[in-house]
Design goal:
By secondary structure, the protein is α/β, with parallel strands linked by helices. The protein has 15 helices and twelve strands. The protein has a six-stranded mixed beta sheet with strand order 8-7-9-10-12-11.
Length: 398
Amino acid sequence: MHGEFPIIPTLHPLADLARRYRETDYGLEAEMTTEEAREIKDGVLWWEVNNKASALYLQGRSYEALGVVKQALKMKRAVPTLVNMSVILESIGRFGEAIGYAKEACEIDAKDDRASALYAEALLRMERYAEGWPLYVKNRASMDWVKHWLPEWTDQGLQGKKVIVIEGGGFGDNIYFFRNLDLLRARGAEVTLICQPSFVSLVEAQGYRAIANWQGNIDIDWRDYDYYTPLLALGAKLGMKWNGPYIKADNFSWEFFRKKRIGLCWRAGEGKSPRKQRSMTDEQVWDVVNSLPKSYKWVNLTKGQPPLKAESVNMETWLDTAKVIANLELVISVDTGVAHLAGAMGKPVWVCLPGLGAWQYPLGHEYHPLYPSMKIFRNSSEGMQEAVDLVVEELEAL
């Protein structure tokens, strides 16, 4: 406050350096001439330095970005610089350091969604579930708008009740949390899942009712249900355990080959991401393909991509993909829905992770604690080459 007048909030980064304030009908407005702004040293422009760090990170130059973001952090310890530092450290596998910056950003502004989501996922990656789940639900699985029509299920009795479960995140997220539908059903609930059209047949094959949702273009009579719950909130509500394979698919009849089959998925769903971290490069794909022993045959699990030396199969829906996986000896995949599906089916699967491994792959495990058939090949720093090299070694030893 300046006298009787409040200061008008502004998003301009130089506002708190203003030398004068002008009285208006709404309060005091910061003033600065162009000449006065030019007199400010370049080092004060912390947001430009922070933006440069972001640009380097998006180009895959994380180590250069780290040096730049350190400068920005010295200039201003704010949510944007702290979040940037945390993200860049995670990209090179330095999760122990990264979490501290995410936490500090949350302490500065608990309402900043990006900071709290980053901190939540950092906690879950370290299996600190009691701290991580509430933040995760708040940022990734909050659907309070449904409460206008239907009460949310928290821990009420479910015998004979109808529960509508609403999808969230990507296909990998949905498969990861799908295990908890069995727990709802075990409590006596009749479960309906709102999901993407390509997921419907897989859901129905597990004995659940599914409603196809294409970009929200669905009509629901909420009076048909007793409760709703976001699918991604079920980890917080029910915990996450492995009680055996929870997705099943019938084998289909395949033309006889003497060779055993291994499935390969080398591309993740990063279509809108400016930086492709989870997908293999063309060179890495060929390193893996060329290392397969002659007694095996490749099956292409990368939808929409050429088969390389692999056998192509129909995968229009996720049930199609599950039926293919059911016929394989092994699945090799990057972090995408295919890896989660193989793990949920109990199929042997090797997953290649970049330095920035997603939170669903907790640290310190060779085999995933929630997918016991999944072996994790994790890059210790930026990129995925180290993980790919380890997979190649394992393939050559078959």
